[in-house]
Specification:
The complex is a heterodimer of chains A (197) and B (433). Chain A is an alpha+beta fold and 197 residues long. Chain A has one domain: Fe-S cluster assembly (FSCA) (GMP Synthetase, Chain A, domain 3). Chain A is 26% helix and 9% strand. Chain A is built from five helices and three strands, in the order H-E-E-H-E-H-H-H. Chain A has a three-stranded mixed beta sheet. In chain A, helix 2 packs parallel to helix 3. Chain B is globular, with a radius of gyration of 22 Å. Chain B contains one helix and 28 strands. Chain B is mainly β and 433 residues long. Chain B has a four-stranded antiparallel beta sheet with strand order 1-28-27-26, with no helix packed on it. In chain B, strands 2-3-4-5 form a four-stranded antiparallel beta sheet, with no helix packed on it. A four-stranded antiparallel beta sheet of chain B has the order 6-7-8-9, with no helix packed on it. Classes of the chains: A alpha+beta (197), B mainly beta (433). At the A-B interface, helix 4 of A face loops of B.
């Protein structure tokens, strides 16, 4: 690949400085996006968030979907996603940050739908890969969280030149669905997610 | 206030195990076709709520939208639009008289017929995903729209011979939905660019005749009101009407069927065409020789109403009943909401009671008083458990339990892969309650 990187020298956070907490529970994957195929690509440096990879008891399926999932758990799910152009995780690049993650409860007592809002901070303002990173975060959370969560991924205000356009795309379910049927793009996403779990 | 209740009737079986996008009832038969992300279309019976046919092997990606050709004799013709950028035409010979499908006690007969839908032809031209496909009410035209920002109009010259009659590239972005006027060759399209555009033929060319700016986010779905609804909706109610109300009914008659739209801005809006000066209406028609009038195809559509906001996330679909004028909406929050239009309460001097808020410091709001209001008649949470609902449509009730020839059900389609039928019942006021 000839493409030069948008940001050749990003700021990198030390792994030990990243917010973490032993996860007491971990949301299951609803759908294995075939990440196993990419095991060979998992960079050796990344053991950041891999507390226990044994399968969780299959009992915690739909019945206990009202378990609380907090910001740290959301962070743990997306922190190990690999940057599409650097051999680093989104957490290490500070693309995803704990204070920019919010879990919002249902808006009505009759509703059981919670919303997860993740604001991402692309490494530099003209990062052309912001959409791909956002898509990776959205796919990761949609696969890992119970279906009662709606996932809203946005570019943090002012962090990106075309954030409105990127946000609108990431918000559009139909375009996200179509993008995931695009083999090339899905290959990039799978590679990014191959460092999760 | 709620006056209707949405009750579960059936989950069509078997469900798909992946997202379904849209379900469209057949214009005359008790059938409904569902567009699925597993690249298939499923055709279910609305008498038994079971799967009759699965149409596969045609599209390489999700089927996003389907449309039955109206007025076909002896066969069913289904058009499919896919994320693979192509549209398909499928045919199936229908045995037996179409008329008697509503008869009781024979709902097994037609399901024994295992003859499948035959692939008939493919319509290529779009560069990206097709988002919506719909036949015109006459069956003469087929409209498609795509992420490639274009709207195409196809004309079927003879069976399987389609000609492109127009490629309309007015939108700046992804086009989400196309809809035909029920009486005129007037096409509307809704887009990711937040606008709705209308087109008609002018001297052999299809041109844009109106651009509606009103929504602040992607417009996901549009649908015209049915034809002749003045006989069926609030306007048909007996009782004394005021002079203003009579004028309002006449205005609606001159405007013709209205247009409804729903958006990522969480609103449903109704648009009405301004009758043209000199156009056919009761008085003053004879005076102006048409040759002098500088005729323009441009149309002006104005906002007629903003419906009560009951969705807190994107609204994906609306459906306007052809029988009752009730409007149903559904979306990401998993709710189905039914709205009803009614006269606003009048006070003695002809000013609408609820319209008082329009008068600020003695200055009337620029628009005329709203004569009618839309109220929420029913609201259902979690129609598809916690999943998003992509589509909800009114359909004629055909199963054995139906209570009248006119009874309608709502059919919803969700991310859980399920297609569900719902009855809509009047809530009887409880005695002493």
């Amino acid at each position: 690949m000839d493409r030069s990187k948008d940001n050749a020298n990003p700021t990198i956070l030390n792994a030990s400085d990243l917010p973490s907490r032993r996860r007491e529970l971990s949301a299951k994957k609803r759908d294995d996006g075939g990440t196993g195929l990419f095991d060979g690509l998992v960079p050796a440096y990344n053991y950041l968030n891999d507390p226990f990879d044994g399968p969780l008891s299959s009992s915690d399926s739909d019945d206990d979907s009202f378990e609380d999932i907090d910001e740290q758990e959301i962070y743990d799910l997306i922190a190990p996603i690999s940057d599409p152009e650097h051999p680093l995780s989104l957490a290490e690049l500070a693309v995803v940050n704990l204070p920019d993650i919010h879990v919002e409860p249902p808006t009505s007592p009759q509703s059981s739908i919670s919303t997860v809002v993740v604001e991402i901070t692309p490494t530099i303002t003209h990062c052309s890969l912001a959409t791909v990173i956002g898509l990776g975060v959205r796919v990761r959370l949609e696969q890992a969280l119970p279906p009662r969560f709606r996932v809203d991924v946005r570019v943090k205000k002012g962090a990106h030149n075309t954030d409105d356009a990127v946000n609108k795309q990431l918000r559009d379910k139909e375009r996200v669905a179509a993008a995931l049927e695009n083999g090339t793009l899905m290959g990039v996403i799978r590679k990014m997610l191959s460092t999760c779990e | 206030m709620s006056s209707l209740q949405i009750q579960p009737l059936a989950t069509l079986s078997p469900p798909s195990n992946s997202r379904c996008w849209q379900s469209v009832p057949h214009p005359s038969q008790p059938l409904i076709a569902t567009a699925c992300s597993d690249k298939t279309v499923r055709v279910f019976s609305l008498t038994s709520f079971t799967l009759l046919h699965s149409i596969s092997g045609g599209h390489k990606r999700s089927v996003r939208s389907v449309s039955w050709k109206p007025h076909t004799k002896g066969q069913s013709v289904l058009a499919t639009g896919s994320f693979d950028a192509s549209a398909g035409i499928w045919r199936r010979v229908e045995r037996g008289p179409e008329e008697d499908f509503t008869r009781h006690g024979r709902d097994d007969d037609e399901e024994e017929d295992d003859e499948d839908y035959q692939f008939s032809c493919i319509l290529d031209g779009h560069e990206h995903e097709i988002k919506s496909i719909v036949w015109s009410p006459s069956g003469q035209y087929l409209a498609t729209c795509s992420r490639d920002k274009s709207v195409w109009i196809w004309e079927e010259l003879e069976d399987d011979n389609f000609e492109t009659v127009a490629v309309l590239q007015e939108h700046d972005q992804d086009v989400k939905c196309v809809a035909w006027h029920p009486e005129e060759d007037l096409l509307a399209s809704a887009s990711y660019d937040d606008t709705i555009r209308l087109y008609r033929e002018d001297q052999d060319d299809w041109v844009q005749v109106c651009c509606i700016n009103g929504h602040s986010e992607t417009v996901w779905c549009i649908e015209f009101e049915g034809s002749g609804m003045g006989e069926k909706d609030f306007r048909a109610q007996k009782g004394e009407l005021s002079e203003e109300q009579i004028q309002h009914i006449e205005l609606l008659e001159r405007s013709g069927p209205r247009l409804a739209s729903c958006s990522d801005d969480s609103t449903v809006r109704i648009w009405r065409r301004q009758p043209k000066e000199g156009a056919d209406h009761a008085n003053g028609h004879a005076g102006v020789p048409s040759i002098i009038r500088s005729f323009s195809v441009d149309e002006e559509w104005v906002e007629d109403a903003v419906l009560p906001q009951r969705h807190d996330r994107v609204i994906y679909s609306i459906s306007w009943s052809r029988k009752s004028g009730l409007l149903a909406s559904t979306g990401s929050d998993g709710k189905i909401v039914i709205y009803k239009e009614r006269w606003k309460e009048q006070i003695s001097n002809g000013v609408t009671a609820a319209g008082v808020d329009k008068v600020v410091n003695g200055i009337e709001a620029p628009s005329r008083h709203r004569m009618t209001e839309w109220v929420v008649a029913a609201e259902l949470y979690s129609a598809h458990d916690v999943f998003e609902v992509n589509h909800a449509v009114w359909a004629k009730r055909c199963d054995k339990g139906r209570r009248s020839d006119d009874e309608e059900i709502i059919v919803s389609t969700g991310d859980d892969g399920e297609v569900k039928a719902w009855t809509v019942e009047e809530v009887k006021p409880q005695a002493g309650g």
